[in-house]
Design brief:
alpha+beta, Jelly Rolls, Immunoglobulin-like, TIM Barrel, 5 domains, 6-stranded antiparallel sheet, 42 strands, about 20% helix, about 30% strand, binds (2S,3S,4S,5R)-3,4,5-trihydroxy-6-oxo-oxane-2-carboxylic acid
Length: about 750
C-alpha cells in the first residue's frame, strides 16, 4: 500500500544566496514550518517592494527502509513560482508555476539513513511563467503542504501532471438513472492485476463492487435512481474506492468523492443544474489572509468555505489561479458550483516557452482536479487583452480552449474579459461561454451602466451565454456618511453599490453566473487606496476574516432562507442631526424598528428596509430592528460633529482624468526620441512615478485610454512595465481617432519634457 507522511516541521529556510547546493543548514538558516511564504508581511504592507528572488529550503529526510522496486517521492501542494528540488546535492526536478501540485521522484537519489532535501524556490520576475502582471501579491515559498510518499512498484499512476490516477465521471439520465464511468491508469501492471471499484453512498452503505483488469482500467457502472448532487441545497456525495489487486493482496488504493449532477447553460435562459434553472450568484475567492499570506492552514480553508456558505452563494470563482485541493474538496462538500482557472492574466508573453507554461498550468489544473464534481467551468484567462490584442493572442487562447476540451469533454470553458473589450471582439467567441469584469459605479461610469451594458450585449448576442465574472467596490470600515458616493471608500457606498447590483442581477436570470469581487479583502503590495497600503478592499469580509461588512449581510438577506436581520451602519456609530435613517437587511417580509425599547415604525420591504426621518435627540440610543423573535441591535450616539476620520481626505492631484487626449492632435512624426536625463515611454512605471509631474502624465494617459479615472497610487501595480508595453492596445487608441503609435509618441513627447528625478 502507499504510505504518505506530511512534512510540516523542521524545515530550514534562508534568503541568502548559495554558491553551491547546500548540504546543511548553518545558524544563518531559520527553522520554519510548512506551509510557508517569505512574503507574509512584506507582501501586504504596500510599496510594491516585497522580496522577489530565489530563496532556499532544506530538510533532513531520514529513511531507514528502502525497498527495491518501490517508488519514493516528495509532493508539494505548490511552490511559488519556480522550484528546483535537489536530493543529496543532485537535481531531481524543476517545476514552473506557483499554484499547482507537483512531485519529485526521489528513488534514484535516495539512500538509507540521512538524506538532504533542498528546494530552491524563486518568485523573481521572469518571462516564462504566468502570472506576469496582476492585482495581487505573488507570494513566494512552499505555501502548501508537502508529503513524502512511498509507492509500491505497481500503483495508480499520477502521470506527469500529478493527477490521482483514477478518473470518475457520470452521465445522469432524466429519469434519475446514471452511468458511472471509472477509469484508471496503472504504472507497471502485471498481466493478472485487477482493479476493484467499490461505491458507497453518503451514509457509507455499500452500493456496488466491480472489477476490471488493470491494463484496461476502464469500466462503466449503471445505477438506478441515484441521489443527485444538488449544489448548496443538497451536496450529496458518493465515495468511490479504487483498489489495485494482485493475487490475494491490495497493492494500492485511491478514494474519490463523486456527485451525480447534470448542468447546462442556455444563453437565453441561464444556468441549469439537474434540469432546473439555477442562476449562479456568488463570489470570487482570493486565498490569502492577513499576516500569513497564502500559507494557509486547513482551518483557514474551512473558515473561508464556511463564510461563503453563510452568505448563501451557490457559486465560487476561484480566482485567479489553481487553489488548494482542500478547497475544491470543500466546494464539493458544500455544494458550490466552481469556476476554476489558471493565472493567464493581464499580459500575454509572445514566447513559445511562456505559452507552454500556460498549457502546463492548464494540464495540471484539469488533471489534478478532474474529480471535483463542484467544478463546472474551466477559465482560460482573465482580462488578457489588457496587454493589447497582441500577435498570437487569439491563437494561444484557441489552443488553450482546445486543450480544455481535449482533456475534459464534460465541462465548459470560459474566460473573463476586461470591461473595455468591445462586445464585437472575436475574443468573445473562443470559449463555450463568456463573462465580463465590470466596475461601472466604482472605477467609472454609473451604477445603471451595468444593466445597460448587460442588456445591450444580450440583445446583440442572444445566443452567446453571458456572465458577470467580476463586479465590486471598495469598502473601508473607517469611512461613513449619509450621502455616500462613488469613490469615497465608505462602507455605506459599498453597500449601496451592491444593493443596486444584487437587484439587477436578480432580475436577469439569463446571466449564467455572477461573482462579487471579492469575498475577502486581499493582498496586493502595489496598492495604496483609501488610505490603506498593500490591499484591495473590495471584500465583503475583511482580510483577517474577522469582520463582515454591511454588504455581506445584503447578500445573505437575498441568498439565504434562514431568517436573518441585520442593522447597517453599526460602525457609523456617531450621527448628527435631529433625525436619523436606519437601514436593515433581512429576508423577513416585515420589520419593526424600536428606539430605546419603544416601537417607532413598521415596514414591509424586499430585503432592504430603510426607516427614514426617525426623530432623535442628542445622546446615546439603542436601536432595535425585529421580526418576531428575531432581532438585531445597534447603538448610535447623536453628537454635534461627526468624527473627521469618517471622511477620506485624498489629494485631488491623485486622480487622473479620462479626457487627456481630447485637446491633443496626433503627432505627425511618430519617431520616439530618448533625450538623456528626461523621462520616456521606455522607463518603468516605478521610475516615472518618482516624479509628481511625470506620474500625472501617466495617470492621465492611462486613464484616458482605459476610460476610468486611474489614480497615481494604483499605477504601482504596473511598476515593472513600461508605458510602451501598456499603451500598445489598438482598441482603446481608436477612441481618440489615433493609432497606438501616435498615442505612444504623444505620451513620449510629454515625458521627454520632464527631467528624471533621482
Ligand atoms: C479586475 C481584475 C482583478 C482586480 C480587480 C480590481 O478586473 O481581474 O484581478 O483585483 O479588477 O479590484 O480592480
Amino acid at each position: 500500500m502507499r504510505k504518505e507522511t506530511i512534512l510540516t516541521h523542521n524545515w530550514y529556510f534562508t534568503k541568502a544566496q548559495q554558491k553551491e547546493i547546500p548540504t546543511y543548514a548553518d545558524k544563518a538558516w531559520k527553522k520554519v514550518t510548512l506551509p510557508h511564504t517569505w512574503n507574509a508581511k512584506d507582501g501586504q504592507d504596500g510599496g510594491a517592494d516585497y522580496h522577489r528572488g530565489a530563496c532556499w529550503y532544506l530538510k533532513e529526510l531520514n529513511v531507514y527502509d528502502i525497498r527495491i522496486g518501490r517508488e519514493y517521492a516528495i509532493e508539494f501542494g505548490a511552490a511559488g513560482y519556480d522550484a528546483i528540488v535537489y536530493l543529496n546535492g543532485m537535481e531531481v526536478t524543476r517545476h514552473k508555476g506557483g499554484y499547482s501540485k507537483f512531485r519529485a521522484n526521489l528513488t534514484p537519489f535516495l539512500k538509507k539513513g540521512k538524506n538532504t532535501l533542498v528546494v530552491k524556490v524563486s518568485n523573481e520576475a521572469c518571462d516564462t511563467i504566468y502570472p506576469q502582471m496582476a492585482d495581487f501579491t505573488f507570494y513566494g515559498g512552499l505555501h502548501r503542504p508537502a508529503k513524502f510518499i512511498e509507492l509500491p512498484e505497481t500503483h495508480f499512476d499520477e502521470g506527469c501532471w500529478c493527477a490521482s490516477g483514477v478518473r470518475v465521471w457520470s452521465d445522469v439520465k432524466e429519469n434519475g438513472d446514471a452511468l458511472l464511468h471509472l477509469k484508471c491508469k496503472i504504472k507497471n501492471p502485471y498481466h493478472a492485476d485487477t482493479v476493484r471499484y467499490t461505491v458507497q453512498n453518503q451514509n457509507g452503505a455499500h452500493i456496488a463492487e466491480l472489477y476490471t483488469d488493470a491494463k484496461h482500467g476502464e469500466i462503466t457502472l449503471p445505477l438506478q435512481k441515484v441521489h443527485l448532487w444538488q449544489g448548496i441545497l443538497d451536496p450529496y456525495l458518493y465515495t468511490v474506492t479504487a483498489e489495485l489487486i494482485r493475487h490475494n493482496e491490495i497493492l494500492d488504493h485511491v478514494q474519490i468523492k463523486h456527485g451525480f449532477r447534470t448542468f447546462r447553460v442556455d444563453p437565453e435562459k441561464g444556468f441549469f443544474l439537474n434540469g432546473k434553472l439555477t442562476p449562479l450568484r456568488g463570489v470570487s475567492r482570493h486565498q490569502d489572509k492577513l499576516g500569513i499570506g497564502n500559507a494557509l492552514a486547513e482551518e483557514d480553508h474551512m473558515t473561508d468555505a464556511t463564510l461563503i456558505r453563510e452568505i448563501g452563494a451557490n457559486t465560487v470563482r476561484l480566482a485567479h489561479y489553481q487553489q488548494s485541493e482542500e478547497f475544491y474538496a470543500l466546494c464539493d462538500a458544500y455544494g458550490f458550483i466552481v469556476w476554476a482557472e489558471i493565472p493567464f492574466i493581464s499580459k500575454m508573453l509572445p514566447t513559445a516557452e511562456a505559452h507552454e507554461n500556460a498549457l502546463t498550468q492548464m494540464n495540471e489544473l484539469i488533471e489534478q482536479n478532474f474529480n471535483h464534481s463542484s467544478i463546472c467551468f474551466w477559465g482560460i484567462s482573465n482580462e488578457i487583452t489588457i496587454g493589447g490584442d497582441v500577435e498570437k493572442l487569439t491563437e494561444n487562447l484557441k489552443t488553450l480552449d482546445k486543450l480544455v476540451h481535449d482533456l475534459d469533454p464534460t465541462r465548459l470553458s470560459t474566460m473573463a474579459q476586461v470591461s473595455m473589450l468591445p462586445m464585437e471582439s472575436e475574443q468573445n467567441h473562443i470559449t463555450d461561454i463568456v463573462a465580463y469584469n465590470h466596475y461601472f459605479g466604482w472605477y467609472g461610469g454609473t451604477l445603471t451602466d451595468n444593466e445597460i451594458w448587460l442588456d445591450q450585449f444580450h440583445a446583440k448576442y442572444p445566443k452567446r451565454a453571458l456572465g458577470l465574472s467580476e463586479y465590486g467596490c471598495e469598502g473601508i470600515l473607517t469611512y461613513h456618511g449619509d450621502a455616500p458616493k462613488m469613490g469615497d471608500y465608505s462602507e455605506e457606498y459599498q453597500a449601496l453599490y451592491h444593493e443596486h447590483m444584487v437587484k439587477i442581477l436578480h432580475e436577469r436570470p439569463w446571466l449564467w453566473g455572477s461573482y462579487v469581487w471579492n469575498m475577502f479583502d486581499f493582498g496586493c503590495d502595489a496598492r495604496n487606496e483609501g488610505g490603506v497600503m498593500g490591499r484591495n478592499n473590495k471584500g465583503l469580509v475583511t482580510f483577517d476574516r474577522k469582520i463582515k461588512k454591511d454588504a455581506f449581510y445584503l447578500y445573505k438577506a437575498y441568498w439565504t432562507a434562514e431568517p436573518m436581520v441585520h442593522i447597517c451602519g453599526k460602525r457609523y456609530a456617531k450621527r448628527k442631526g435631529d433625525t436619523i435613517t436606519v437601514k436593515a437587511y433581512s429576508n423577513m417580509p416585515t420589520l419593526i424598528l424600536s428606539v430605546n425599547g419603544m416601537e417607532i415604525d413598521k415596514k414591509s420591504a424586499n430585503h432592504i428596509f430603510v426607516f427614514e426621518n426617525i426623530p432623535i435627540v442628542k445622546g446615546t440610543h439603542t436601536i432595535t430592528v425585529s421580526a418576531g423573535e428575531l432581532s438585531d441591535m445597534a447603538i448610535f450616539e447623536i453628537t454635534d460633529e461627526l468624527p473627521e476620520h469618517y471622511t477620506l481626505k485624498e489629494d485631488p492631484s491623485e486622480a487622473g482624468v479620462t479626457n487627456w487626449f481630447d485637446d491633443k492632435t496626433a503627432p505627425t512624426d511618430i519617431t520616439l526620441t530618448f533625450k538623456e536625463g528626461f523621462y520616456s515611454v521606455r522607463d518603468s512605471v516605478r521610475d516615472i512615478l518618482k516624479s509628481e509631474e511625470a506620474g500625472t502624465v501617466l495617470a492621465n494617459a492611462f486613464g484616458s485610454v482605459s476610460g476610468i479615472k486611474v489614480k497615481k497610487s494604483m499605477l504601482m501595480m504596473l511598476a515593472d512595465q513600461t508605458p510602451e508595453d501598456i499603451l500598445k492596445n489598438p482598441d482603446t487608441a481608436k477612441r481618440f481617432g489615433m493609432n497606438p503609435d501616435e498615442v505612444l509618441a504623444l505620451v513620449n513627447g510629454e515625458l521627454q519634457k520632464i527631467k528624471i528625478q533621482k
